[in-house]
Amino acid sequence: MILLVPSRAAALSLVIVSLVAAGMPARAGTVIILSDLQMSGSPAGQVTQPGWFAQNINKLSGTTSLPLNPTASGSAAGIAAVLVATGNWESRGGTAEGRDPVTGTSFNDVVSDLWVTRTMSFTMAFSGLSTGVTYGVRTWHNDSYNSNQGFAAGGGTVQLSASGATVVSSTSGTVTNLRGSQSNSAFGIASIQFTPTVTNPQITFTRVGGAITALPVNGVEMTATIVPEPATCGMLVMAGVSLAAAARRRLTAAGCSPFWNLARTRKPRGAACAPRAGLWEQAQPRPIRLRRIGARRSEADMQ
Description:
By secondary structure, the protein is of the alpha+beta class. The chain has helices at 8-23, 72-76, 230-253, 279-283, 299-302, and strands spanning 28-39, 53-57, 65-68, 80-85, 89-92, 102-103, 114-117, 121-127, 134-140, 157-163, 165-171, 173-174, 180-181, 190-196, 202-208, 215-217, 219-226. It has a domain at 27-226: Sandwich (Jelly Rolls). It contains five helices and 17 strands. The two termini are 39 Å apart.
């Protein structure tokens, strides 16, 4: 069996990587849902946000419950989400419906069309979530109607709450009537980060204020943030410490002071710690010793 002993540099690198993994957990965001909520029939002026999934419903859908299509990652994880309201969902989009385009932002086509419920709240119900994962949801609430403020009349905020989950952070959104050239900061995006305590938690969106009973929503983005378990981090740290200890033993056996003990009194350096030869000396050819097979024989062989 061949035993590979790591060098000092390898040991130090593994120690650093292990400590970073333990003290600063890696956070990998996976997109679960990325839905641009639109009106069916491809109305003139309605454009899907690049990279997003277009979800279309009729102007009068006749239903209170609408499923959101997950991404490939969401489907593979078995995650599903449904928007549920107490009133039927409707949709608006395109210039024929008086919705002007938005420019100047990173989500122009998301906020130019919408779904709306003529109630002051709706719920996003999940299934298939994992209790060891932190999820994030962001929603936009704008009506770009050009005749008046439309479903955004009176403005107001969108507040979020969760059931069956621990809320990590939450930011209220704003209901806006914006169109034309804008900036990202002009839109109050509602967001929440939560860790489920059950596999089927719910997030409730509630409009507070406003001059009309309606809650528009333009798009839904959902991500999953995976944090390494403490046991995994502990194994990485132990592996790094073990490799560092092995490297120290090698150096001590060779009569060298380990590089992390420079402040201590050093032992005289032995041959094993001598500086390497210069490039010229290394480049000189070494003599080749030729020995004929059988040139040396023991006395026993000669008998």
